[in-house]
Every structure is written in structure tokens, then in C-alpha cells.
Amino acid sequence: MHCCRFTTESSDRSVLGRVDHENETIAALDIDEPSLDAALRRGTSVDDAPATDETYDLADVTLRTPVERPTNLLGIGLNYAGHAAEGGFDVPEEPVFFAKSPSSIADPGGEIVRHDLVTDLHYEGEFAVVIGDRLRAADPDSVCEGVFGYTAANDVTARDLQARDLDDALPWFRSKSMETFTPLGPWVATADEADAGDIGIETRLNGETVQDARTDDLIFDVAEALSAVSQYVTLQPGDVVLTGTPAGIGSMEPGDEIEVEIEEIGTLRNAVVAPE
Hints:
This protein is mainly β. The chain is built from 5 helices and 20 strands. The protein folds into 2 domains: 2-64, SH3 type barrels; 73-273, Fumarylacetoacetase-like, C-terminal domain (Fumarylacetoacetate hydrolase, domain 2, Alpha-Beta Complex), CATH 3.90.850. The chain has helices at residues 36-42, 81-86, 159-167, 173-176, 222-230; strands at 2-8, 11-20, 25-29, 51-57, 62-64, 73-77, 96-99, 105-106, 111-113, 121-123, 125-131, 147-154, 157-158, 182-190, 200-205, 208-214, 240-242, 250-252, 257-262, 266-273. A hairpin with a 3-residue loop joins strand 19 (257-262) and strand 20 (266-273). The model has no long low-confidence stretch (mean pLDDT 95).
């Protein structure tokens, strides 16, 4: 199942839906919660929820981020050897993770703002995990049983701010957490729909491929990363963990379009704009 969140021309109310790619339609689900994270926190069984009689053409709706305001939004840093090398870092001996503000989450198709405080804005295409069940001190052999599904993410980073913070031994939080710095979507593929152990990630800047990798290149695979995080942070239903970006990071400028395509899932597209 590919679960999305959308609005229509006639209503700004968010609705969860099931995507039918063959017919390019979305069937609205009979769920009261307006976002996937809200439904998962409440314990709603989303993957087998019945559909209503409301069906929409995919082209006629506006897709919203499936996960709107998770309890925790976390990223795994330096999780591809190539990315660690291009940043001048050693390969970590254990997963390095950091927090991002949930208010940084942006819609698929929405705008990424290069804020006035930022002079060097970077893309980081990533494979992201949506948590389905509470995970605390989880064993790597069973941790993926608590995963709801997977989606595409862009861990947008103010590289100039991050470099200054690294020099001062400060956290990465501000460089990762400004509004629009975490586009997610376009939908979430349930865990049975994708092989997290070997799935392709491609990032394109204005149509040119700039990142190309597979999740079997991860230093710490999804299970290892989630287990490590759960030793310190209790992951809640609806939480999102970004698993790391491959080599090939680079700058974005207003007027650029950035795409993150995850094999078997879909393509996240966003335009970069200057602040108003």
C-alpha cells in the first residue's frame, strides 16, 4: 500500500488516501485523523483501513506531507562512506544521529526556502523510515517489526551554518531545522512494499543526477540504525528517521528543482525559492 495525504480544490481539509498507480487515482480512507502520524499515534490500523466511495484523479489533488508533526524527527549522519569522505570525516564506529525540528517538514511539490540567514543551501537525498510501533531499546533482529513504512526525504542543510557550528563544537540543529528543510513524500510505502536492505536512491538537480546509491551501501543498515537510536530515544508511532545521504551533496539556488527518487516508492520534487 502507498499511503498519501492530500487536499482537494473544494476542501483544505487533509485526507489520507490509498494510491492506485495503475489508474492514477487516490481512494480516500475511512479514517478520522488528518495525517499518518496522528493516525499511527492513535493506534488506527491504516494499512488495512477501508476506503470510502470518494475517489480522485491523482492529477486533481494537492499532495501534502504524509507525516505532518511527528513526536521525533531524526537523521542519521555520515552513514555512507562516500559522504563521510567528501566531508572530511572518518567513518563512524557507531551510528551518529541528530534531531531536526518537526516544523521543518515540507510538502512534496512545496517550496524549499533559502532563508536570508543562509548563503550555502545543500540538498541531501535520503531514504526515510516511518515508525509504526513504539520502539525502546529495540533489538536489531526485531526492530523492523515496528516499522510502518518508507518514504523519500530531503535533509536540506544550511551548510555554511553547519560548518560554523562544527567549528565551535555545537549541534547541527539550527542548520537542519529551518522551515521547509525537510520535504517528505510523496507518499509512504508500507514495509511490505519495499526492501529496505537494497533499494535505490537517486537525487537529481534540474534533471541531472547528482546522487546515486543503494541502501545496501549504508554503513549501518536500517535495523542497526533504528536499534541504536532506540537505546537513547524512545521512538513513537509516526516518528520519522532519515537514514543518511550518499556522496554527491551540493548547493541549491533559487530557481532550481530538486528531485529525490526512491526505487519502488516514488519521487519527491521541490522547487527552491528565495524568501519573500
